[in-house]
Amino acid sequence: MLLRIAFRITNSAEAAEDVVHDAFGKLVEKAMVFPTRNDAKYWLIRVVKNGAINYAKRKGRETRAYEKWWRSEASPIEDTEAGSLSIKETGTEAGIQPSV
Question: N or C: which end of the chain has fewer CB within 10 A?
Answer without folding.
Answer: C
